[in-house]
Amino acid sequence: MDNFKIEIKNGSINDTVHFHGNIDSHADSHFEELNQKISKKSVVFDFSGAGRINSMGIALLLRSIKSIKTEKQAEISIQGASQINTMLFKMTGIYLLAPEAKR
Amino acid sequence: MIAGLLKKYQRETINMFSLNTPGGIICSPAPPISFSGFPLVHEWPVLSSEDKEEIIGRVERIVEGDGPSHEFLRQRAALMADEMLENALYAAPRDTEGNQIYAKGERRSLVPGEEIVLRCAFDGERLFLEVSDSWGRLSPETVQGFLAINLAHDTSTDRAGRGLYFMWKFMKDFYVNFVPGLKTSVGGYLLLNPDSYEYGAI
Q: What range(s) does the STAS domain occupy (chain A) (predicted)?
């Protein structure tokens, strides 16, 4: 089932990437174009619309975060993660690469 | 003879995993899981990859109740069922050289003779979850190795066994039951009100 989508809002200070739906192997192709759409040096990944993120989804996120940081020299922060996704991000080191956004 | 072998392994080789003092993973035999106290054990066969989301939905629905504890249990249950079914559908099937037959996310139906079954039960406090497949490929030693490499807490992207690591971390009494070439079962409990959400680390 492919109900996943990524929506990017280019703001004046940062780009906000909104994830909608489950992040798993079906989300793979959506991540391919993400880099090209990033224009700011500050990027926020917003997970408030995201559902389940499985181990494959975690691998996609790690790859995407590393790629944006390296190729765009951008800093990434994370907001809107659910309780379980927050635990997964801590467990897998995602927060080491992209810390929680300051409120 | 195969039935005898199956009985022998089912009786004797439920394996659990824990941390030893230097921080290594140890694998220990444990008695089989008892279903006493569960009013009903559900058993749902998987016939194709298209069944996955429907079965995850059923698992979520047997956790009846409102409030944050029930909602968080449903979230954990859905993730565990997802990882278990992905392993059974895509990681377990191997050719004679040990290569993975199906790519993750690929649509597939089970081949003749292949079986995948999810069992679950909820007694209001404990949710038991188990997925069995008929490949018998996942040895306790392999699981032990996967857990060890995932303990490193670095940010490697394509790390094998990450799903098993999640199961070990989230589930109480996470176990693997293995009959080479015949059956692998992976399971454990999720608690509504656990004293810790990270069992593998304690």
A: 17-103
pLDDT, tens digit, 9 for 90 and up, residues A18-71: 999 999 999 998 998 898 899 999 999 999 999 999 999 999 999 999 999 999
Give the model confidence (pLDDT) of A56-67 as tens digits. Answer: 999 999 999 999
Q: Which of A24, A59, A84 sits opposite B157 (nearest CB)?
A: A59
Q: Which of B72, B154, B169 sits opposite A93 (nearest CB)?
A: B154
pLDDT tens digits along B21-69: 878 888 888 888 777 788 899 999 999 999 999 999 999 999 999 999 9
Which of B90, B154, B157, B190 to mutate: most A Cβ within 10 Å?
A: B157
Q: Contact at 8 Å (CB) between A54 and A84?
A: no
A103 pLDDT exceeds 70?
Answer: no
Q: B147 and B200 in contact (C-beta within 8 Å)?
A: yes
Neighbouring C-alpha atoms within 13 Å toward the C-beta of A79: 10
Which ipTM was obtained for this model? 0.92
How many A-B residue pairs are in contact by the CB < 8 A criterion?
63
Minimal Cβ distance to A55: which of B53, B166, B197: B166
- In CATH, the number for domain B2-30+40-201 is 3.30.565.10
Domain ranges of chain A: 5-97
Instruction: Check CB contact under 8 Å for B166 and A59.
Output: no
pLDDT of residue B201: 45
What SS3 state is found at B126? strand
In terms of CA atoms, which chain B residue is nearest residue A95?
B155
Strand order through the sheet with B25-30 = B25-30, B14-19, B172-179, B183-191, B126-133, B116-122, B42-46
